[in-house]
Amino acid sequence: MNPPRPAVKAAGLRKSYGKHVVLGGVDLDHPAGTISLLGPNAAGKTNTVRIRTTFIHASSGDMSVAGHGVTHGPRTAIRVAKT
Ligand SMILES: Nc1ncnc2c1ncn2[C@@H]1O[C@H](COP(=O)(O)OP(=O)(O)O)[C@@H](O)[C@H]1O
Ligand SMILES: [Mg+2]
């Protein structure tokens, strides 16, 4: 059996608005077909999803979706084939 494919990965993901740090270094490693993004209000869930979908840029750190980096470069649409 093949190991699960990484779907969403993040390493040291940080986002700040001025001095307001909203993501202080997030690490994620979600296999395909799984979701876990839980937390109280203002924990940073929406910012994490917006970075993941390239609506906003991270301040630093790395994030990828199916191996495609989303934290650097232009906003892009990533189409991931369902297998
Ligand atoms: N555009 C923005 N400018 C400044 N602060 C923001 C902005 N968007 C979100 N925040 C702040 O970032 C923090 C995390 O927000 P958010 O990612 O929406 O959390 P969650 O979705 O977990 O409730 C909150 O303190 C929020 O006020
Ligand atoms: Mg939210």
Please describe the topology of this protein:
Elements: E1 6-17, E2 20-31, H1 45-52, E3 60-65, E4 68-69
Antiparallel strand pairs: 1-2, 1-3, 3-4
The structure holds adenosine-5'-diphosphate and magnesium ion.
Adenosine-5'-diphosphate (ADP) binds next to strand 2 and helix 1.
Number of helices: 1
Beta-strand level of the residues, as a percent range? 35-45%
Task: Give the overall shape, derived from the CA principal axes.
Answer: globular
Along the chain, the helix and strand elements come as EEHEE
Bound small molecules, deduplicated: adenosine-5'-diphosphate, magnesium ion
Q: What is the radius of gyration? A: 13 Å
CATH architecture designation: 3-Layer(aba) Sandwich
Uncertain regions: pLDDT < 50 for 5+ in a row?
none
Structural class: mainly beta
Overall residue-averaged pLDDT value: 86
Strand order of the largest sheet: 2-1-3-4
Domain tally: 1
Instruction: Please count the beta strands (DSSP E, at least 2 residues each).
Output: 4
Can you tell me the CATH class? Alpha Beta
CATH topology: Rossmann fold
Main sheet?
A: 4 strands, antiparallel
Distance between the termini: 15 Å
Measured as a percent range, the helix fraction is: under 10%
Q: Kindly report the name of the CATH homologous superfamily.
A: P-loop containing nucleotide triphosphate hydrolases
Short description:
The protein has 1 helix and 4 strands; from the N terminus they run E-E-H-E-E. The chain has one helix at 45-52, and strands at residues 6-17, 20-31, 60-65, 68-69.
